[in-house]
Amino acid sequence: MSSYVVALDVGGTAMKGGLVSASGEVLLTDRRPTPRVDGPLRVIAAIRTFIDDLAQAGHGTPSGVGLAVPGLVTEDRAVYSANIGWKDVLATDFTSLSVPVRLGHDVRTGGLAERVLGAGRSEPDFLFLPIGTGIAGAMIIEGRPYGGSSGWGGEIGHISVFPDGERCACGQIGCLETYASAASVGRRYGERLSRAASVQRPDTAYSAPGPSAAAYSNPASAPGAYPAPPSAPAAHSASAPPASAEDVVALAMRGDPDASAVWDEALEALSIALASYTLLLDPSSIVIGGGLAEAGAALFDPLAERLEGRLTFRSAPPLRHAALGMNAGMLGAALLGWQAAGIADAGASWALDVLRSPSVP
Amino acid sequence: MSSYVVALDVGGTAMKGGLVSASGEVLLTDRRPTPRVDGPLRVIAAIRTFIDDLAQAGHGTPSGVGLAVPGLVTEDRAVYSANIGWKDVLATDFTSLSVPVRLGHDVRTGGLAERVLGAGRSEPDFLFLPIGTGIAGAMIIEGRPYGGSSGWGGEIGHISVFPDGERCACGQIGCLETYASAASVGRRYGERLSRAASVQRPDTAYSAPGPSAAAYSNPASAPGAYPAPPSAPAAHSASAPPASAEDVVALAMRGDPDASAVWDEALEALSIALASYTLLLDPSSIVIGGGLAEAGAALFDPLAERLEGRLTFRSAPPLRHAALGMNAGMLGAALLGWQAAGIADAGASWALDVLRSPSVP
């Protein structure tokens, strides 16, 4: 086996790991739960074990380790994560191996992967926008992810799109995320049905059309700094499962008025936020990933039309589907691992066919 | 006299020129009207003459020429300006001298000057926001002005702060500029009085408290791509001069209810836009310039408070007053001129005391 790095994408729910060769071959992947409820020390211990186990599967010592983690992060320190609960963890504390380690912010590491290996390969200036449980963006500026003056940049999910709108879980008013994340689309549909039920229209009670309540959610792309929005009050039916965004989109496509109203507001909120981003940052494209991107044409077509309609004196950037799916974070972590190993332009020569790479399970 | 560059800040109304030495001494300044109404060829000819005349005042050939111009611009080409009407003008076409020439976008050139010589000297990541006739920003990212993928970035004046609000002159709805530019503050106050007059409350008719209708306007900071907003219908009094933003702020400070309402909406619009900018770009500070910054504490204090109030999970960046005033564009053009002459870090060693430099008349 050729030389390799260990790559780990640490989300609030799951950790996605892999071994990636110097030529970009994904040698293996694995996935484990993040023991977040057991506290930060347990998470760090689980990461160390996961890295050890992955390295065991490789031949010889890895050339480096790369980790994508949530919260505030520098290359050599996980400064803070409200989601996981850690504070000031050195990169080297995440592994027992004596190899170079580099950290990256979860969403920006996914953006790095899309830039080097994915939908942004030929674009130095774009927005990577994974929409899952939460919404955060990776601004790719002059070829590299940009995190702002202190690392807190990219919080497009919390710009106020409706200043007189709903209160977000973060405490602000009218945040994009509270209208348009996958979790919010499901929650808002449930709330709408509950309101309808409370005014005595039992015929509108919801029954979930799809099997998976977790569909379209993407824990890795959540900003992770805030508690999840409260789930919909189940006043109308104690046994109805919460709607997933996938369900809501499917219902909207079939003309369901409640689902259509919720989806319409999500699209409107997204178009306002993306118009603001476009006017400020002038991206050459907007690369949408995360669970909600799986809605496909039901998302991309009306959103592109609304974005174009909002802009009068400039054109709208094209919306593209992210290329790397749920592997973006792990592949970005692999790039960080190779950068740690001294390969500054890691990935530049990789002829990665992501469809042929083993996916993270 | 030491070696020098010719610097020119070309606005829609006036051109501000200067000679600046290699050590940052402003040797002289001058100002001429921009013959915009006579068409782009006349403007180009006027620029050439202005540069010739400035160079005549120096000893020997200048080391370079720097120009700040509106619209879409690269270092060596004025690609397009709706305001002035030119298209694809080479940098070298702006002068008859055989010296290196470099162009810059007007607002970003002002931002460059604030970064190198002014309020952002120690800050690599901040927003320079001149508020005048229009509103456009210069995003300083990792030490340099950033214009986006195609040069159209920074249009913070046209992000929609009230999606159900007023139509902007640009055609979009609820733009920051249509509520908070100096021109809009004056216009909206006049419109408010007109509406009051039309419902038969003649006691609210406006009489201008200040002498200058042009106060607080700053043509150089206008994006320049759109027509000026229509002036207030003068239904209530054909002879009343339009209110200036300075007038409106003064009236608001004295408790005038109409002026207070207009100023309140301007502050609210600014706080929404700056909260969005902060959440996205995470600047270490926001440097406000242009005519409206002359409102001082009446602008800065309530705006800082509102911005802080809008952000729940992060702190607000401090608001700073721009240091270079109306000279920012000319001083930035001087930096461009020295860059053209081969001094990549022009300005780094200048011990510029802008208060002792001759101001552009």
Automatic annotation (TrEMBL), chains A, B:
Region annotation Disordered: where it falls in the sequence: 194-213, 218-239
InterPro entries from the UniProt entry: ATPase_NBD, ROK
Pfam families: ROK
UniProt cross-references to PANTHER family, sorted A to Z: BIFUNCTIONAL UDP-N-ACETYLGLUCOSAMINE 2-EPIMERASE_N-ACETYLMANNOSAMINE KINASE, ROK (REPRESSOR, ORF, KINASE) FAMILY
Record-stated family: Belongs to the ROK (NagC/XylR) family.
UniProt protein name: ROK family protein
Organism, as annotated: Sphaerisporangium flaviroseum
